[in-house]
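In the design runs reported in the main text, the only information available to the sequence generator was the tokenized backbone. The following block is the verbatim input for one such run; it is reproduced so that readers can re-run the procedure and compare outputs position by position.
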């Protein structure tokens, strides 16, 4: 039964992603290259709504907010750059690649195979990577609130207001 529910949920999410052409990489690409903001506005609205929601769910004890914060270092930034280059070469992020496969784009299928191979290689070599590359540049775990020296609730408020302001600015400034 759980598999059937998961399948139905996956199909629904896939349908929404495809119909909305929702891809984080293309949202930024469309804005910077074509000044189209419809997807990026959706991202900003999404962040403006979910930032306080996650904070409130955490305060209510319903979720663990930050279970995946890892130690950061030089190779964390390098990994982010490589990830970004990979998204550009693939023509979109993971969600964009998946819905494009559903639309029949063969190049997205090649990108998916590359993502799966990359995940497998990383998974098999993680302990070596962690020992040789990650630990020597470790600067510890930190959040934006810690770096700014403000309470987490204030960082949430500023983040929510910032995302909402960007959304409203885009809505007023750009027609597409």
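Verbatim output:
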């Amino acid at each position: 039964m759980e598999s059937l529910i998961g399948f139905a949920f996956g199909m629904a999410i896939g349908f929404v992603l495809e119909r909305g052409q929702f891809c984080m990489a293309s949202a930024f690409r469309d804005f910077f290259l074509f000044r189209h903001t419809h997807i990026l506005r959706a991202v900003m609205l999404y962040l403006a709504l979910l930032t306080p929601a996650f904070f409130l769910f955490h305060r209510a004890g319903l979720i663990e907010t930050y279970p995946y914060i890892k130690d950061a270092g030089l190779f964390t930034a390098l990994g982010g750059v490589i990830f970004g280059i990979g998204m550009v070469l693939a023509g979109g992020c993971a969600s964009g690649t998946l819905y494009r496969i559903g639309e029949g784009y063969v190049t997205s299928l090649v990108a998916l195979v590359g993502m799966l191979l990359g995940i497998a290689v990383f998974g098999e070599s993680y302990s070596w990577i962690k020992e040789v590359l990650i630990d020597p540049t470790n600067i510890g775990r930190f959040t934006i609130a810690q770096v700014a020296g403000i309470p987490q609730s204030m960082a949430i408020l500023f983040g929510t207001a910032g995302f909402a302001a960007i959304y409203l600015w885009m809505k007023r400034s750009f027609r597409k």
